[in-house]
Amino acid sequence: MSFSHVTGPTVLANGRPIDGKKSLLFDANLYLSTQGEAAVAALRYFNEENRSFDAPAVYEIRASVSKMPEKGIQLSNGEKLEDTEYDVIGDITWLHPVNAEDAKQRPYVDAIGTAENINREDSTFDVTAPQWTQLLRRQEPLPIRAVIPDRARYKVQGDKMKKPIPNPNATVHISGFMTRVLPREGDVEERADRFYVAVDDVTFLGRGSSNNQLPEAATQVRTQKGKRKCVWNYDANKPSGDTGTTDHGPEENPPPTKKPKQDESNVASSSHGTRNSARK
Question: For residue 124, how many other CB atoms are within 10 A of its CB?
Fold first, then answer.
């Protein structure tokens, strides 16, 4: 058993029909850090109630997600989604609009997968959580670098900590806020390698039968020189100046649009590098 879900305020923009008039694809920005870093997602929503969607706006959503595959995905309407443009792909299971005075709210992640690459000294471990999505019509993983922060509830004596660090190959359910994207090391396009989650809770579900050691996640700085589709200026709390299109309801059929990437940075752990700012 495995899954990966995110919940929280998300900016949705550029809604366009795919696979019929009721299935809409959005460019989505999920805020990650105090310096405006965002994960960029391609999210499908089945618009059963024929909602109208205005130009970039904040919605509370829950979505099943996985990392965008390396080769991207070709849609039936002819649009090609690339991993240079999107970090994440997935399906929105529910949403509602919110009047957010400040859109700087991180997405909350729930995931089940096998723990790998345990580092007890840093209180980190990797979880790769395969998730089936309608857009891909198959399972793809959401690779997570989980970190358990120092918290008072883990103190046992003085400053000593006893944290719920899993053993290798343990099946775990983790939940916590996504705080940044780790890019592939040496990749000039800075495509996503792994997603950093500050863990609030760990539940131990059993032990896996394999021993798949994964490579260490990249820790390089993400400079944002690529072409990710940032549609929201988190510092100004309004649509990005580069966003010149309006979202469409199910009765319209605009051509797919490509948006440049915006601003991103920073991290939840001082032991790792950061992913910084402005893609043009």
Answer: 20
Check if CATH label 1.10.3470 holds for domain 3-105+227-239: no
Tell me: the pLDDT tens digits for 246-268? 444 444 444 444 444 444 334 34
DSSP string, 22-71: SEEEEEEEEE-STT--EEEEEEEEE-TT-----SSEEEEEEEEEEEPPTT
Neighbours of 234 (CB within 10 A): 24
Q: What's the CA gap between 228 and 94, in Å, rounded?
A: 24
Q: List the structure tokens of 118.
A: 């345990």
Just give the CATH number of 108-207. 2.40.50
Closest C-alpha among 53, 52, 81 to residue 68: 81
Q: What is the pLDDT of residues 71-104, one digit of tens each?
A: 999 998 889 999 999 999 999 999 999 886 777 8
Angstrom distance (rounded) from CA 17 to CA 199: 36
Whether the pTM exceeds 0.85: the reply is no
Which of helix, strand or coil describes residue 209?
coil
Give ranges for CATH 2.40.50 in the chain: 3-105+227-239, 108-207
Distance CA 111, CA 63 (A): 12
